[in-house]
Amino acid sequence: MIELTGVSKTYRMGTVDVQALHPLDLTIEAGEFVAIMGPSGSGKSTLLNLLGCLDVPTTGVYRLDGKEVQSLDEEELARVRNRKIGFVFQNFNLLARQTVLKNVELPMLYAGVPRRERTARAKELLAKVGLAERMTHKPNELSGGQRQRVAIARALTMNPAVLLADEPTGNLDTKSSHEIMELFARINAEGSTVILVTHEPDIAAYARRIIRFADGRMLSDERKEAAG
Amino acid sequence: MTAFLEYVGIALENLRLNKLRSFLTIIGIVVGVAAVVTVVSIGEAGRHSVVSEISQYGDGFFVIYPDFSQGNAQSYPTITLRDVDEIRKMPGVNKISPYFSFGTLATVGRETATFLINAGSADLYEMEKIELVAGRFFSEAEDRSRQKVVVIEKAFADKYLGGAERAVNRQLVLNNSVYRIVGVYKNPDSFLSGMEGVQYRAFMPIGSAPVRWAGDRVDFLQATSYLKGEELDRLVDEIKAFLAKRHRVEPDGYFSQTGEQLQQQVSAVFNILQTIIGSIAGISLLVGGIGVMNIMLVSVTERTKEIGIRKAIGATPGAIMGQFIIEAVILCFAGGFIGMLIGLAASGVFSAATGWPFFVSGRAVLLAFLFSSAVGIFFGLYPANKAARLQPIEALRYE
User: Fold this and answer.
1) Cα separation of B296 and B4, whole Å?
2) What's the half-sphere exposure (Cβ side, CA atoms, 13 Å) at B287?
3) Residues 6+ apart with CB under 8 A from A114
């Protein structure tokens, strides 16, 4: 599913090159539930951006769903993000001025899905995340947990190969955090690959595989048999 | 197509959410388009007004006049009453009149007024499309027998003679000769009328004019013909050759102008004027376009985050570009439409005030639309491209 070979990332900060991610080999199979942990600056967000095709690696080969994506241009990367990847962000990143329904429809808009089909699919997903009653609301009329569930519904619209979540519970209270994680667990149980970045151990505990990072290097890669 | 409509929807939504700003942005375009449409429409109205005034004389209308700068003491270009009588017999000539204008004082009782008198033949009645309000025009017989009769304009009759009806058959002393008023006519409301100031106008038979040039010379001749186009030009050349031969001068000793030529010349002048003034008005459109670009750039910066989100979930650079260009075009198009309405209203008011015909120039309307859309695309291009090239991670981080 995801196959990184010798992937690294170097940023240029003024005249200094900063090695955000040292060369790394990593394979994640379809259906896995992975948590990436580490302090800030450890390279975990850089990795997530590379996995999400928001950024391209400086070196190495990234094979996503059987296709090499490290040398694609902007236009092609946009298509990969649209069809193969679902993003969930810490600060939700919903379009504030659009309704919940329109937000969830958005990825399908860029995929060229006809309006009727879009609306039907968006309603179906909002029902799945328990927000069928809030479709016509604007994001700012919802609680943090509800907003994150909208974001998850949006991430799922195109049936992505992988769901990427960057600190999805970072802005939520404990109760909402666990509700969101239950939702991820359920989505994973239904067969989706889920990769999330977090620094909270009780959030990472939902995953069945935990990869730890520090200073741009992978420290450990543990697998559990059952979710905690 | 569906995607396009979606983008239009997104753009409209965004413009609606920023009503005041959208409105202020398009003012520049509104003013520019209104200026262009007004100028072109008024110009068009002016052209029609002048051309229709010229065409009153009919297509076969022409004038021939001598070039006084040519010749020498023995022979020089001139037109005499006898020349006109000969030309009248030429095939193709319909109406013809010599034309001799002079200013003179008129005495009515104890009052005096200045007259500009046009002396000619009875054919002037039809050629000049004279609109009688009382009495009649002078006749050919009166011209031949040198009757001292005169046809005066209504304004004079109203002021000094107690109205048109009462003026008929009254006497008028012109240049110390007594003339009988046989008719009163109404000066057409022309955009040229009123330019003569306080001079009154009158027509009289050239045979009875109180002053005359030696040898019965006249200022020029005017005539109409059934001929048109090249055939008319040929007739005019023939007459000029005839005159030149009689007076032993070169044929280029006579100028001529046909109604058709005059219409073309006037049209050409109006075209030039319209183009020049229209271009100046167009500059305000350019300024308006720069205003649109400015606001679009602000909008792109403000919505960096939104652009990042859209890109993260799969918007291609082309899609982002399309969104912003469509927004700019809608702005300019709306501005163009409002400007067009204002421009048409302004030219309507202008035509009501001046009495010129109200003329909706399809060309101006089309031009305004095309131009404002082009301005939208042109000035939307740079901001849209800037938006499309934003890096998704950078854009997402933007707060």
Assistant:
1) 19
2) 13
3) B2
